[in-house]
Specification:
It is built from ten helices and 21 strands. The protein is of the alpha/beta class. The protein has a six-stranded parallel β-sheet with strand order 9-8-7-4-3-12.
């Protein structure tokens, strides 16, 4: 269910998350540190971090300017909830699963999964002296330094919320703070972490976007960050079923669009991808929040692995330059350590690896001039609430030179039979290889036969009883 909101406060979803270009000095400092380590004889592994946005505005780049596919997780409450040893354990595990980005709050509150509304950690360390957000408790911030360093060492960029919607609520640490203090706080955060290469700035978090006081805090937080010369990418997360640009205040501020939806993800991602070109567009639109593993889909039942695959693969074939996943352990429930290695996590990783093997940054969504001409199901075109499993629309993307095409064919609604889709053969290269890829492991493949009329039919069931498939066509 959804708790309805007024125009004066952020909202939360029950059972859910109750919840700028830095290619200059940051990259130089980091790479020079690597060089120093190498000269001392220490083995080095160059990690890539999200530091900027591509020149065409469609994807993210790392500190060298190379494309970086975002492979995210959402450990929202990790910093206030976990010990340094636990953060190290989480980061090592996620690096092993290919995760290179993490959504995380810098300051906790009870509504974003933290132990208390004053921002204290699990062991009682407060971030501020007397609740003054410009008077910092060094013990707390030294721990945050350590946590961000741990993420850096494991190749994970923190999509970091110095202030989120939940800790601006009444009783929480940022509630009603002045614009001047928010500006100073932003300056202090940016200055402290100027040399860290692994930070993308965030604000909001299930926030309705229309509270003038909270907007003032967020705007001045960002202004304080920018006053230091820090140009790392910034975005805002609004309430569910939104893009960041849906609220004019943030349309003018965000460098990329945070797509937040529990419904078929292609709809929201395509909406952001197709925004008219302008002074700030194109800008990346990335699926960043949706159904979490182990939680409910609009109260209709627990998410399945296909639920999670659909929202991932719909997004990646609709222009999203990566995506974030999450689980019910975003607030680190008891026993979370035993749930780090699930079937879904393995599927998620393998599907990400499959897309990383493509020229994913060149893929253009198959929308206005369709490659898939028949058999693709009903396209969702509005913001209507719809269970992921109630729609079976086929999405696709292709590189401009036609050398790579990927089509996602979900299980048909009802799971009654195989699906036949029709392709426009003129949109394929003169010679090609077509392969069905099993998205339950993304390594099992079989040949795909496209007949003279462009028809191609999905293979049979997977071992879990589902029948969604990826069609890969390479010229």
């Amino acid at each position: 269910m959804t708790i309805k909101h007024s125009t004066k406060a952020p909202t939360r979803r029950v059972g859910r998350r109750l919840r700028l270009l830095a290619l200059g000095i940051v990259g130089v400092l980091y790479l020079s540190g690597l060089a120093s380590a190498a000269s001392a004889g220490s083995p080095t592994v160059v990690k890539s971090y999200v530091t900027g946005i591509s020149s065409n505005g469609r994807y993210f780049v790392d500190q060298t300017g190379a494309p970086i596919l975002v492979k995210g997780d959402s450990p929202w409450a990790m910093f206030p909830d976990l010990s340094p040893t636990q953060v190290e354990s989480w980061a090592a595990n996620r690096e092993g699963h290919g995760v290179n980005a993490a959504i995380v709050a810098l300051i906790g509150s009870t509504t974003n999964g933290g132990p208390s509304d004053d921002g204290a950690t699990y062991d009682g360390i407060l971030p501020f002296v007397g609740g003054n957000i410009t008077n910092w408790n060094e013990t707390y911030w030294a721990r945050m330094d350590n946590y961000l360093t741990i993420l850096k060492d494991h190749g994970i960029t923190a999509f970091l919320y110095p202030m989120d919607g939940w800790n601006t609520l009444p009783g929480a640490v940022f509630h009603g703070k002045s614009n001047a203090d928010s500006y100073t706080y932003g300056q202090k955060v940016a200055t402290r972490y100027a040399s860290y290469p692994n930070i993308v700035w965030m604000a909001g978090g299930d926030y309705n976007g229309y509270d003038s006081t909270i907007n003032g805090e967020f705007q001045n937080l960002l202004a304080g960050i920018r006053s230091t010369g820090n140009t790392r990418p910034f975005s805002t997360q609004l309430n569910d079923e939104t893009l960041s640009t849906d609220v004019s205040t943030y349309e003018a501020l965000v460098n990329w669009n945070f797509a937040y939806t529990y419904t078929p993800t292609y709809q929201k991602v395509l909406k952001g991808y197709k925004r008219p070109a302008g002074s700030r567009d194109p800008r990346p639109v990335m699926f960043s929040e949706g159904n979490y593993e182990g939680e409910h889909i609009h109260g209709s039942g627990t998410t399945t692995n296909e639920t999670l695959r659909r929202q991932q693969l719909w997004a990646l074939t609709s222009g999203s330059p990566g995506e974030f996943a999450g689980s019910s352990d975003w607030q680190f429930n008891a026993g979370w350590e035993t749930r780090l290695d699930t079937v879904w996590i393995t599927q998620m990783q393998k599907n990400r690896d499959f897309f990383a093997s493509l020229n994913w940054q060149q893929l253009v969504p198959d929308d206005s001039v369709p490659l898939v001409t028949a058999g693709r199901g009903t396209k969702l075109t509005t913001d209507s609430t719809l269970d992921i499993l109630q729609n079976d629309y086929v999405t696709a993307a292709q590189t401009p030179d036609k050398s790579q095409t990927v089509v996602y064919v979900p299980t048909n609604t009802g799971n009654t039979n195989a699906r036949t889709i029709t392709l426009d053969l003129s949109r394929l290269p003169a010679t090609y290889t077509a392969t069905w890829v099993d998205p339950t492991n993304a390594t099992s493949t079989q040949p795909a036969t496209i007949n003279a009329t462009g028809n191609v039919t999905t293979p049979g069931l997977h071992t879990d009883g589902t029948r969604d498939w990826l069609l890969a066509i390479r010229g």
